[in-house]
Every structure is written in structure tokens, then in C-alpha cells.
Amino acid sequence: MEPSSEKLLWMYKTMIEIREYEEAMVKVYLEGKLPPKIQKGLAFDIGAGPVPGEMHLAAGQEPVAVGVCAHLHAEDSVVGAHRPHHFAIAKGVRLNEMTAEMFGKVTGLGRGKGGHMHLFDPKVKFSCGGIVGAGAPQACGAALAAKKMGKDWVAIAFFGEGAANQGAFHEALNLASLWKLPVLFVVEDNSWGISVPKSMSTSVASNADRAAAYAMPGIRVDRNDAVDVYMAAGEAVARARRGEGPTLIEVKTDRYLGHFQGDPEAYRPKDEAPTLRKDDPIPALGAMLRSRGLLNDETDAGIRAEIAARIEAAYEFGRSSPYPEASEALQHVFSS
Amino acid sequence: MEPSSEKLLWMYKTMIEIREYEEAMVKVYLEGKLPPKIQKGLAFDIGAGPVPGEMHLAAGQEPVAVGVCAHLHAEDSVVGAHRPHHFAIAKGVRLNEMTAEMFGKVTGLGRGKGGHMHLFDPKVKFSCGGIVGAGAPQACGAALAAKKMGKDWVAIAFFGEGAANQGAFHEALNLASLWKLPVLFVVEDNSWGISVPKSMSTSVASNADRAAAYAMPGIRVDRNDAVDVYMAAGEAVARARRGEGPTLIEVKTDRYLGHFQGDPEAYRPKDEAPTLRKDDPIPALGAMLRSRGLLNDETDAGIRAEIAARIEAAYEFGRSSPYPEASEALQHVFSS
Amino acid sequence: MTNESTSRTLTMAQAISEAIGMEMERDSRVFYMGEDVGKYGGIFSATTGLLDKFGPERIMETPISETGFLGTAVGAAAEGLRPIAEIMFVDFFGVCFDQIYNHLAKNTYMSGGALKFPAVITTGIGGGYNDAAQHSQCLYSIFAHVPGLKVVVPSNAYDAKGLMIEAIRDDNPVIFMYHKGIMGLSWMSYFEGSTNAVPEESYTIPFGKANVIRQGTDLTIVTLSQMVQKSLLAADKLAELGISAEVVDLRTLVPLDKATVLKSVAKTGRLLVADEDYLSFGLSGEISSIVAENLDTLQMKAPVLRLAVPDVPIPFSRPLEQFAIPQVDSIVDSARQLMNAKAFK
Amino acid sequence: MTNESTSRTLTMAQAISEAIGMEMERDSRVFYMGEDVGKYGGIFSATTGLLDKFGPERIMETPISETGFLGTAVGAAAEGLRPIAEIMFVDFFGVCFDQIYNHLAKNTYMSGGALKFPAVITTGIGGGYNDAAQHSQCLYSIFAHVPGLKVVVPSNAYDAKGLMIEAIRDDNPVIFMYHKGIMGLSWMSYFEGSTNAVPEESYTIPFGKANVIRQGTDLTIVTLSQMVQKSLLAADKLAELGISAEVVDLRTLVPLDKATVLKSVAKTGRLLVADEDYLSFGLSGEISSIVAENLDTLQMKAPVLRLAVPDVPIPFSRPLEQFAIPQVDSIVDSARQLMNAKAFK
Ligand SMILES: Cc1ncc(C[n+]2csc(CCOP(=O)(O)OP(=O)(O)O)c2C)c(N)n1
Ligand SMILES: Cc1ncc(C[n+]2csc(CCOP(=O)(O)OP(=O)(O)O)c2C)c(N)n1
Ligand SMILES: [Mg+2]
Ligand SMILES: [Mg+2]
Description:
The complex is a heterotetramer, with two copies of chain A and two copies of chain C.
Chain A: H1 5-30, H2 62-69, E1 77-79, H3 85-91, H4 95-102, E2 126-127, H5 135-148, E3 155-160, H6 167-178, E4 183-189, E5 192-193, E6 196-197, H7 198-201, E7 218-221, H8 226-241, E8 247-252, H9 272-277, H10 281-291, H11 297-320
Parallel strand pairs in A: 1-2, 1-3, 3-4, 4-8, 7-8
Antiparallel strand pairs in A: 5-6
Chain C: E1 7-10, H1 12-26, E2 30-34, H2 50-54, E3 59-61, H3 66-78, E4 82-89, H4 97-104, H5 107-110, E5 120-125, H6 140-145, E6 150-152, H7 157-169, E7 174-179, E8 196-199, E9 211-214, E10 219-223, H8 226-240, E11 245-249, E12 252-254, H9 258-268, E13 271-278, H10 283-292, E14 305-309, H11 318-324, H12 328-340
Parallel strand pairs in C: 2-3, 2-4, 4-5, 5-7, 6-7, 10-11, 10-13, 13-14
Antiparallel strand pairs in C: 1-8, 6-12, 9-11
Helix pairs in contact in C: 1-7, 3-4, 8-12
């Protein structure tokens, strides 16, 4: 199923939005974290600045997010992992509230309680979490709910190639196949699990080869390309909606930045990231759009300006929103 | 690698020993558990009698134990699960002490502290445990130790087809393949996980097909036959000893008795167990031995008499040994 | 009351499966997942008869994949369904606790209240029938320690039904722990006090209300689950010795009814905690600290006494297990010891 | 002493990796497994430099398979090796606790002492740097609650080295928990008191010996890990207010040095527990109950006060997190409150 012009443009815009969001975060995140304003002797202070805590960015990994989410509606569920922004943006999570959450503000998705790894937007059924592998069974739950309610909604679990070695992966895939759940397991193979290369974590070259262990289709997308992902995911989503069960997809992608911001990356060949950037999927899709006459300098500039404004507004919203009252810490342990 | 006459005879004898041991346990276990000597209204009292607690017997599942253990030495490790006697006996665990353990006696393998699901015999490197799936990574540990010490010892993890859906299975197989550990994962497919048929627990027909997910060889032994298991395991053990890594073997086998003693088995077709017994692997191997001139009525009777005596002695040892002092409960939390 | 209530004597297992069945009938969003919960009816009979009534879509047999199906419960609850998931023995929580305490229990909080997780986890606890170290634990204090879970630990059939209905209707994760030795199973000896009169109709028992199940004046025994039944038997024996024991059945650990404990201890001046969990860093410490934190208003006649499993794995052998797990006689002995002790004057 | 000892100032992370390195040199059976422990040197720098020294066979990089490699540690320990396995954050224990508490911790007991399990589990604990609910917990009381594990929770570099060497040489499973905010990492602010003089040579600190790290007469602060450093700062402030606080650093929870706590409380008559774990059913209850159980010998001047995380997940937002996790000022406030309280007379 080739993407329509509309989908192509949407994927292009959304990839730009993700990239710009992440690049902006690189800068905002560093605010207040560097000498001399931090404890003497430190190179960096993770707990300082307006956006404290760990920060996992997805620059370079946009194709997997847009290629899959292009097939989804608000009622479909997405469960991301610790590196969630690209999925959140592609799923349509409210950008202002998401950003405010990372600033720890009361206007945030979780009133500042969740933070970057724990974004919940029930309006578009997005969630994520910081425990590697834990999202896979949760996506089964969303899929089971859809099935029980007689809806054709699907659920997507996105996680990294490192996560595919966690026991939860195995249990979730077996359940999903057994119960013919409308769920996709999408492995982002960015070659690294923090500092551990795939060859040191994974006994098989492609996780797609693990699908046979659950009698489900397995697809490997070998290029970090939105259209390739779109095509693979399209058939899988359609199968799921038809009630034919789950699919496992592994997508080769690239992590341009460190595992988290502040990662010294001593484990990584110095020229790896710059080399990867030469195959940047965004200009690649841009060129395709231009060749089809769907984009030119002017419309491109328009798209970029609109996105820049939206992102700036989101960061401004996050920055200027108030913090919750300290005593709010005691609320929401239970819902009443 | 065809089994030698010696191995054939050993397998035959050991299967008989296992079967007789289990059949004896069926009776001993019932002692003191039935009306009228128990609480009024009960049909059965699991905590009563000389051998209290859960009891999982392996009658029918002898081939997998002897077919694999025929290749092992004392230095090789075996990790069993909640249904451990056939593996223990095939691995050469001290029968008296094992039996005493199930009677809760101070002469038991664990001084009465472990019981039937927790048998540890360091002399022949046998262990087991009551948590489904937990043994697989532990066998990796034994295999890693062998590798680190430069020995050609192997480790075997035995577990049921139900256990193959536990996350620990996935993690252990991946690790074993990645680190080329000398370990065999042997799945006993007795079709049932308590009351749950394989078709309701396992998304794939044969667990052997899951080996490809870890780039290791996978073998399915389709008959509950000691020689077939012997041949499959022989090549796998040899590979492991040569440093070529792990193998996954699934063996079709039959559970003649309930999941545990006292299981009402309402979930099971009434005629299933009797039908299965028609393919009893012990007379089958006996017939083969006879056809090769390795067994006749007289030698068979001799074998059986010797085994009966050994088993009777073991139960007698268990029964007549003293209980530990109650205050021993406080000892051995830590080794000193 | 306008309705006439009919009640029969039920075992705790019957009361539980009745409660689940009634709620499943009332609310189509409720469903049950677990191992051997279908044809078998649950190893501890919590789902007896329910498969026939509700079919395999609502009484869902699972593989031995606790992380898989508990994670499924998390996801389904977020979508508005009301899953009940059974961990056969609480001892197995170690293979799946992540889904429970890092997700189910925290997602409401991390979402700032935007999401509800109306799920119940049922599980069998306790020893006393020689099932040894991996099948005999209580562990309730671990579930009570982590925020975001309500923890229910009934001692009898009547309470179990009302608490189960309350649990299923609660919009938050609840862990419902039944001691095997009070379920009234046909294959395990049990304390008969746990089998009692249960109304046919639906009713709820609110969480956080401890039950002063026996009044007394000399000492307070704070306890829960099967140990309530042991404590009542001990109180009978103590009465023969002229010692009047008040027995407080906590019923739920989260929320914890400290006020009732405090009131009772204020009256008696003596506290014995009778617990089947491990001694240290758990329930008995928490209950003891109610006294420690209220030394301004309490005039204690004796130090607090904690009776619990003395920080050893549950041993298999009968004499060892009987020694490790507090028994009726050890409650009696502890109470007598308490009556002979003195607080600092 | 005949040996002259040289000591330098080390961060706690440096002290830990030095201790591990020394023991790996001394005993070829010791090896280390975990995620990012090789080239990265451990996310919290517990293994910095060790890969270069010992190579990948002894500093083993693992997949994200905690159950897999902890189970491997169980099996390897049974064979006589001495594995150290790192769970990057203690918060992840929920995916692998079964191997720890049902096997590693119990197998010695279940084997009647026939088998030893000389393994160390290292793990990062604690919050204060906005890592939110799944990366900021302490949870030590859960490990201390289950029998068969020794639990070590150092507060400074000197102790960490001695306790780590002791842990590696112990023939039993030890969980060694380092608070991230005292490791002296170059990327996280830390309490400087935790970086101190560490002798170059090898030494051990016995388990079960609490350290009275500051003498005082008015109240006893019982604490551990990073909270020791906060308590010392609080004690300075309290001294300015004329309040003399004694600070007891528990160092290990199993074994627990109740005698030292009791002695100190007997002297001061007031107990404040300063804890970064969740409040209920955990450490602070256990410590409080030392008072409750000793009301025959203790004359308390005030009720016990427990300061801990108020049973909420650790919130992300800075003001919320600072509120939820006890700070120096909250210790000061609690101590003042304690000085104003009275016990029943
Ligand atoms: C159960 C668990 N173990 C370890 C971690 C620490 N951790 C966080 S992200 C990560 C690497 C994940 O790699 P991958 O799944 O490939 O995702 P990527 O970071 O490449 O997007 C690790 C080890 C965790 N969060 N949860
Ligand atoms: C983690 C865990 N979950 C559930 C159980 C309860 N249980 C014990 S044996 C068993 C069935 C095991 O089936 P299988 O692995 O096929 O072995 P079999 O009993 O057939 O030998 C179950 C569910 C357990 N012991 N551990
Ligand atoms: Mg990755
Ligand atoms: Mg089976």
C-alpha cells in the first residue's frame, strides 16, 4: 500500500516536527546544567535546570514513528518506552502539555508528576514508561480491550532492539498470537542499547526472525526510511484490524545522539553519528516529495515556519506555566 | 550415535527405577490423607501423612530423563523443575536421602527443609525448584562456570512445555546462545500445564521451532522413546562439550498421573491416561532389549527385584529416619 | 431493612467465587485471567463454576506468563475494562512484580490522575500444609509497602464476599490475598471459623475498617487473615486462663485502620501482633510503630510483642514449619508473656 | 600497626570500583555481570576501568535480561564461582526478583546448608535528581524483609570500600545498594561528606555494626545511605539551635544492629528515623519497633518520629520531589518537633 500524497506530506512534516522538537530539547535541557552554576567539580548536573532528570532523544529515529502512526486513529493505542517523543508526536499527543510535563509544570500531561519517561495522553491513547520491555504486554491489554469491545482498533508497542531480550517480549508475543490480538510489536533497531551493540545483546541478526517462534509474521525493514516503514506497517495494521492477529516488525534506524543527553559516548566510534547523519531520512523524503512535485522551497519553508512556531509555543508554554504546589505530591496516588 | 548395549540396559533399568519409585510414592503419599482420619468433610488432606505437601510425579515421562542423562557424568549439572524425581534418579541423586527429604527428615538432602520440589544434591550437581521457568537461567550459570573453569562439563535445564512461555526461557536461551554456553534446554512436552493444554498456552506447535529465535539448533523428538531421546541428546551434548554452544530439544512425552497427586483431573478426557499407557516406553524398550538378546525373563526379574529392594530401602530409610529438632528451623538461613 | 436477607454458610472460596460471579453479571467490563481458572476452576477454587456461566472470553485461561497477562491487565484497565488477574501463589510475584508496582500502581499518579486502573489481583497466600519455601509465603507487607495498591486480606467468608465486591468496584488496583488454609478447600484442612454465614445478596465492606472481632480488656491482638482464626482460638484458651484478649482483624492493610488499633491498645495497654509474614521490615513493625508513634497518649503496661515468622524461609518438614509459623499455642504463650512483662516506670 | 597506611580522598564510586578490582585480583573466581558495565564502566561508575584490567570474560556485558543473568549468577555461585551482578537501578528489581528472593536467598536454607551462594548484587538507589517514579526508589526494606539476603547500604566512600570487600568475601548473597546522590559522579550533584579518605590497602568492615557517626545527647537520628549525609548537615543546624543530635548510620540492614540503636535511644530518650524509602511497612517501622519492643527498659521523652517518603510514588517535578523526599530542613523540623513533644506521664 503506497502512501498517498497526503500521507507522504504528513510523514514529512511530522518527521520535521519530531526532529525540531528534539533539537530544541538538546538546548533547553542543557540550560542550568553546566559549570560554573553547578556544584564545583561537576562537568554536568543532571538534576539542574528547567528540564531535569534523564532525557532520551530520538533524533534520527523519526521514520519508525511516522511510518507506523500514519496508519493510526485517535482510538488506536500506542505504548512507547523510555525514548518516547517521536512516537508521542506522531500519535498526536498534545505538544504543549507534553512539554510542560517535562518542565515539571502543573499544566503538564501528568501535572508534572510523570516527567519525560512517563507521558500519558488518554485523548490519543498514548502512554510510555521507563522499564525496558514493559510496554509490550500493556499493548496486548489495549488490543484485548478493543477486541472485547468489538472495535477494529489496534495497539502498537514500540521498543528498542535491546528490549527484545527482556522476558516480557516473549510473554507478550506468545499471548498476542495465542489470542489473535490486534497488536503490532515494532522493534526500533538503532544498533545500541545504551553502550551495548546489538551483537552483544541479541543472539539472532534480526528480531523479525523471532516472529516464527510465535507463529506470527515477522518483517524486517532494512532502511531507515519512512515509506518503507509505512508499507510494512500498513499491511500489518490492516491484518490486525481484520482480526487476523499480531505482527512483529523490526526497523533498522539510527540514533544520532547519545543514549541520554550527557552520555559521553566513549563506547561509540567517533565518526559513527556524523556518518549516519549523511543518510538522514528527512531530506531523503523531502527529495522524493520534490520529485513528485509535492514540495518546493516555498512550501518547505512554510512547513518549517509553522512547525517552528508550534514548537516554540510548546516550549514557551512549558517554561511559563506554574509549578504545582508542593503538597500536590500527596494527591493522585489513588483516583477517587 | 546409537546407544551401546550398556546404555540401553542402563536406560531400561533406570526407567523402571523411576516408575517404581513414583508408583510407590502414589501409595505412600496417600497414607494419612484420606477420611476418616482427617478433618470432617474433607476428601483429602494435603498436609497430612508422612509425606505432606504437593507431590508431582513423573510416571510416563521416564524417556526424557534417561535419554538425556545417559550422556552425563557427575560433574555435569542438571536443573529440574517442580516435577523432579525422574531427573534426580537418572542423574544419580542419592535415593535414600532424596526420599528422606520428602518425609521431612533430618537425614534428607536438605535436612528436611527443602521437600519434594527443592532437592539439592551437590555430589551429582542436581538441583530443582518450584518456580516455573526459573531453572533455565540457572543452568546457564552452571554452564558458564564450566566454561570459565575450562572444563567440558555441560548443564541441562529440564522443564515443561508450559514453562516455555515464561520470560525466563527467552532470556536464558538468548544468553546461552550469545555466550555459547554448554547447555541443553530440554522441554518435556506432556501436553499439559496443570489443566491447560498446550494449544491454549503455546502459540507454536513445537517449541523446537523457537530455537531459530536464538540461532541455536532445535530438535523435536516426536516419540516418547528413550532411544530417540538418547540420539537427539547425544549430538547436542557432544556439541556443547566441543564448545559449540546450546541446543533446544523438545520431547513429546506423557503424563500418566494427575498434575499433582489429588488432582481431580476433571479437565482431562477420561480415557486419555489409560490410552497413553498403551504406549508405555518401558515395555517398549524391554522388547527391544529382548529382541537384541540383552534381556530375558530371568534377567528382567533380577533387575526388577534389585530395584524393588533399593526403592523399598529408600522409603524405609525415609520413614524410619528422625525428624529434625524444631529449632533447626532457625539454622542455615546463612552459611557460615 | 426492607429486603429480607437470606444467608447460608459458605466457605471463603465459595464466597469469593460468588462475589466475582455477581460482579461479572452486573458489569460486563469485568473479566478474569489466570492459570487454571477455567475448567479447573482455580487451584484454590476462586473461580469454580464461572467458566460455565461466563465462557472462555470472560474467564480467560492464560499461559504461565504472569508478566504477560498482568501487563495485559494494565493495558486493559487503562481502556476502561475491569480485569481481575490471578497470581496462583503470591510466591510467584517475583516474576511479574514490575507490572504491578511500577505500572499498575503508579500510572494513575504519574498521569496526574488522568487515568484510572480498576484492576484486582487475586492470589493465594500462606503455609501450614508443608508446601515449603516457594509456596507458603504471605508477603502482603511488600504489596502494602509500595504506594498505589490497596491490599485486602480477609479472614472469613462473610468479609471475603463484601471485600471482593468492594475491590471489583474500586477504581484503583487492589490486591486481594486469600490464605489457603481458610478457603475451606476439600483437600486441605482449614479453620472452621472462616466458613460462616454469607448473605445471598450483594453487599460491600469498606476498606480501611478493621474489625474488633472479639472484645477484651487485658491485651490487644492485632492480626489478619488465617491468623485471625488462630487468634480467636488462642483467645478462648486465654479466657480459660483468666486473660481477656481483644482481637482486631485488620481486613485491609492499605488503607490501614490505625485508629481502631490505637483505640484498642489505649484500652488494654498491651499489644501483641500476630502475623504470618516474615518478622522484620514488614507488617509487625508497622503495627508496632503505631505504639511507638503514640507514646504521648498511650500508657503501655508492657512492651509490644511481635509474633511472626522468625526471618527464615518456610521450611518443609512438619515440625520445622510448625515452629516457624506462629500457632495457636504460640499466640497463647506470647500473650501470657505479655501479661507478665512490665513497661518502664 | 606496622603497616603504614596511605589514604586518598575518593568518591564512593571510586571506592567501590577499587574494592571490586582488588577482590578480582585476589580471587579469580570473582567476576562481574551487568548492563553497560564494560566500556561504559557502569552507569554509576561502579566498574570504571575494570574492563581494561580484567577483560570481557570477567567484566561481562549482558543483554537487558535481568532474570537471565541473575539466574546465571545463582547457577554460577552454586558451582563455587563468586559472581557480582549489577541491577542498574533497584527500581528494575520487579523483573527479576524471583531469582533473588526465591532462589539465591533460599537455596542455602532449602539445601540444609549443603550449598553456598557467594554472590553480590550491586544496585543504584535513590532520588533527588528528578528521575521520577521508576528510577528513584530505595526499596531496601523489601530486600531486608525476605530472609536469606544480607543488605548493605553505605553512606560514604570509606565504608563502601570496606563493606564491598566484606560483601565479596561473604559466602552468602549480599545486596549492595549505593545511593546515586553520594557516588560523587561528575554528572550529578552529590553530598560531599560521602567523598572521604580511603586507605589504599584492603580492609573490611564487618556487617551488623552501625556507626555512631556523630555523638549527641538530645535525640537519636537513625538513618542510612544518603540520608546520613543529610542528617549530618541537619545535626549541624540543630547544634546552632542548641539541640544535640546523635546520628546513627546503620550501614547494613541485614544484619541489623539493634543494640547500637537501643543504646543511643536509651541515652537520648528520643528517636527520629530519617529514611528515603516509603514510609509504611518498611525500614522506619522496623526501627520504631525497636522502641516499642523495649518499653520495659527505655524511658522515652517523646514518641518516635518517622520521616520518610509519605507513601507516594516519587514525583518528577522538582518542588514535588523535594517535598516527597525528606530534606535537610525536614530533618531539622522533625527534630525540633520531637524536642517539643512529650511522652505520656
Ligand atoms: C528492565 C530494565 N532494565 C534496564 C533498564 C535501563 N535501560 C534503560 S534504556 C536501556 C537501553 C534500551 O535499549 P533499547 O531497547 O535498544 O532502546 P534504545 O535506548 O536504543 O531506544 C537500558 C538498559 C531499564 N530501564 N529497564
Ligand atoms: C512462575 C510460576 N507460575 C505458576 C506456577 C504454578 N505451576 C506449577 S507447575 C505448573 C504447570 C507447569 O507446566 P509444565 O511446565 O508443562 O510442566 P509439567 O507440570 O507439565 O511437568 C504451574 C502453572 C509456578 N510454580 N510458577
Ligand atoms: Mg536500541
Ligand atoms: Mg507440561
